[in-house]
Amino acid sequence: MASADEPAQAPLRYVALGDSYSAGAGLLPLDPTASPSCLQSTVNYPHVLATRINASLTDATCSGADTTDYFEPQFSDVPPQLDKLTADTDLVTMTIGGNDSSVFSGAIQACITAAPADLAGSPCKNQYGDSFEDTVRGTTYPALVKALTAVQQRSPYAQVLILGYPSILPATTGCYPFVPVATGDVPYLRSLQGTLNDAVRRAASATGATYVDLNGPSEGRDACQPIGTRWVEPVIGGTNPVILHPNAQGEQALADLAFAAFSSLPSSSTLTGRVTGYSGRAVKGADVRVTAVGGTSTRSVTTRANGRFTLPGLPKGSYVVRVVDPKKAWASRYLGGGSSRSTARVVTVKRGKDVSGLDVRLKAAVRASVARRGGDGSVKVSVSIRRAVTKTRPGGKVTVSYGSRVKAVKVRKGRATLTLSRIPAGTRTVKVTYSGTDSTAGFTRTYRVRVR
């Protein structure tokens, strides 16, 4: 198999969406190109990841965002986050869902407010019961599916990564007053966060996105841990003015996990399709040749007995696909086009996104003889045509032209004869065109004929 010219690899087009955990709220320096209302940091995980993968970053993250802000302006100077996506986007990352219905942030605030009433008990759980988790399952989850589906529609060739939320509290005992939650409400809030992350995971699975798990990696990195260990800052004694949010170490950890997930995804693509004849029967042994636009080398693969072909390992770029029958029983064809590259369809391959359904139906090649004879101011042309694949004789139309002089006749049982008159004496170039049919390839040939 010949080595293909790889298209020039431009930087990945990376769009970051999401809420304050994506924006890096509270971390300095702020990104001067973003709205001040978004508290978007230049050390948030999208910026760290973009540098690591050499990507061109469009950062649409904004503190306080929920899934509705994907579709509507969050502030007067902050358009819908989906507006930043294009069909050419290669990578999308996000954390989102924690602010939906104010359920997660609201639950934490509710539990902090309830704590003084019973520091050793579970006053928050006693008051709110399953209401928070029910909201996540019944409201947040479908909102996540809607948002992720819209992302896929805007950027159908992008790899989409959605991260869960890192642990805020340890499994059992908390750290009152640094995170002022009653002892019995620590596992209550942990369970709620687990339900939220599970909703994110399920939404990713339902929409074909990649879920980046934070439950395991962030264990022991919660807000109750000492500086240098924790990824999330506490309410009291923290280094981030935006409480219960990642510190710089946490944003770096999120970037590391996103990088690991992205790196595990395929970086090249596979083209698949099927080649058939005009009757729909499989064509075995046809060469499917793939050439990068602007390149010269070609990769090729041969169709199997069922007419199918698989060509893996293509980097992102634009390609022209041509099907050629070495036995010449079938006419060559550019995928989706005619007999020249200018009419061929260009197949666009995105990073790690396979392209299927590249099906091609071939017309029969023809074996044709063209007899021509010059006369007094005229040229007589006789055409005899057979299909190469079946030896049968097709219909169609034959046209002979010289300058503005054009004449056409029907082909009957593979034969046609016509005379083109009023041609000046001398050696003249005439063009003979066979139109072909739905099942038979046409052709155009030119001949030099001596006219008396």
Write up what this structure looks like.
With 452 residues, the chain is α/β, with parallel strands linked by helices. It folds into three domains: 12-264, SGNH hydrolase (Rossmann fold, 3-Layer(aba) Sandwich), CATH 3.40.50; 269-361, Immunoglobulins (Immunoglobulin-like, Sandwich); 366-451, Sandwich (Immunoglobulin-like), CATH 2.60.40. The protein contains seven helices and 20 strands. The chain has helices spanning 20-23, 45-53, 103-114, 123-128, 131-154, 186-207, 248-264, and strands at 12-16, 55-59, 91-94, 159-163, 210-212, 269-276, 287-292, 298-302, 308-314, 317-324, 333-334, 346-349, 360-361, 366-374, 378-387, 397-402, 405-410, 415-421, 426-434, 443-451. Strands 2-1-3-4-5 form a five-stranded parallel beta sheet, sandwiched between helices. Strands 7, 8, 10, 11 and 12 form a five-stranded antiparallel beta sheet that branches. A four-stranded antiparallel beta sheet has the order 17-16-19-20, with no helix packed on it. Helix 2 crosses helix 7 (248-264), helix 3 (103-114) runs antiparallel to helix 6 (186-207) and helix 5 packs parallel to helix 6. The mean pLDDT is 93.
